Amino acid sequence: xxxxVSLGSLRGHSGVTVGSPGSPWSPRVPPGLSRSRAAAVTxxxxxxxxxxxxxxLGAVLLFRLRDLCVVCVSTYGVNLALLWLNxxxxxPKSD
Length: 95
Prior knowledge:
Layout: H1 8-11, H2 37-64, H3 70-88
């Protein structure tokens, strides 16, 4: 389920919840796309591209510039972790 947090007291309105279909804070995912094969392939391709870019940028940073940036290295780590998660995730067999 979706965790619903009431924002009515914060905005002075009642009935506004995060995650409800009419909420401005609800995710705008087309129906049926979130669990589809196309979504899984898109996530895998984009995470692979970002991981490759991270490896290239990391090599440039380390070997060409001879520098080490903590923020950059942590970003590279996040990209590699996303790739690992997308590779180990069970994907739907068909659309």
